[in-house]
Specification:
The chain is α/β, with parallel strands linked by helices. The chain has 10 helices and 12 strands.
Length: about 300
């Protein structure tokens, strides 16, 4: 039995030909963790992530050497590439010149009005969207003092402060994310953002943890928000190899009957009546259908 989900109305943003917001299907993202300077390793990861269902992939750009590698990575990628920028605004300009499909900026460490103007001008020229990515761990001290710590109000205030800087330049090609390692704080602040603005929302729990706990913590926050119609794209953040991230993201969407891409395997939890190794068989079935697409359910009983 499926439930009817009425999605929040958000504006449409185009990322390398893929629509986010504006009623477009909720997309699944992931991020590479190989050094960006290792072009072959990054391209291999992107291809693997795409095969696992990632529709957008983010790469870190920590230095000029990484920025120099971007053009080759972007040209070879089967999906849009997002450049993740911290601290150095010049890297954002270099990423735009390399042809990135989208920027991600952290308002906690790129704050100067002059830098925002330069970045927004270049992004406007190239029609490249920017994600303002607020993390609970980098809320400015004055906002923590004003709002009594890290909470939904200080996080939203940090987002608003950065939004105003971009809107002053006339730039509104924006995706917004507000992430915490606390799933329920992530829920609260995204509810507030959805009520207060119509920018597309990128959902995720930051620093979620290793595979099991990270998957559970992400599923808790994302399922609540998605069931309320909040969210336009998502990433499940897991420590270690990123190849499981899009798989978990798709499982969340599938479990809510929002989108399906891969077969669903269901299996008996077993009891004293069990006469076969259901767990081993179910795992074998799951492994055998990796990479297979289709809206089907396979039962192992």
């Amino acid at each position: 039995m499926s439930i009817s989900i009425s999605r929040a109305q958000t504006r449409e943003v185009i990322v390398g030909g893929l629509s986010i917001g504006g009623g477009a299907p909720i997309s699944v993202q992931s991020m590479t963790n190989a050094p960006t300077t290792d072009i072959e390793a990054v391209c291999s990861q992107i291809n693997l992530l795409a095969s696992r269902g990632a529709e957008i992939v983010r790469v870190a750009v920590p230095d000029k050497e990484s920025a120099a590698a971007l053009r080759s990575i972007i040209e070879r990628s089967p999906v849009p590439v997002v450049s993740d920028i911290h601290f150095d605004p010049e890297l954002a300009i270099l990423a735009l010149e390399a042809g990135t499909d989208k920027l991600r900026l952290n308002p906690g460490n790129i704050r100067r009005r002059s830098d925002i103007w330069k970045i927004s001008e270049k992004a406007s020229e190239r029609q490249v969207p920017i994600r303002i990515g607020v993390n609970s761990g980098s809320i400015p001290g004055d906002l923590r003092d004003k709002y009594g710590g890290v909470n939904r109000d200080s996080m939203w205030a940090a987002a608003q402060r950065h939004l105003v800087l971009f809107e002053e330049t006339g730039f509104q090609n924006i995706v917004l994310s507000l992430k915490s390692s606390d799933p329920m704080l992530t829920v609260e602040v995204n509810r507030l953002a959805s009520a207060e603005c119509d920018y597309p929302l990128h959902l995720g729990v930051t620093e979620a943890g290793p595979q099991l706990t990270g998957s559970v913590r992400s599923a808790v926050a994302l399922s609540v928000l998605l069931a309320e119609g909040i969210g336009d794209t998502l990433r499940v953040s897991l420590s270690g190899s990123p190849q499981k991230e899009p798989v978990v993201g798709w499982e969340i969407l599938s479990s809510l009957d929002i989108r399906r891409r891969f077969p669903r395997v269901i299996s008996c939890p077993t009891c004293a009546r069990t006469r076969i190794d259901v767990a081993e068989l179910a795992e074998s079935v799951q492994e055998s259908i990796e990479g297979v697409t289709g809206d089907i359910t396979i039962a192992v009983m």
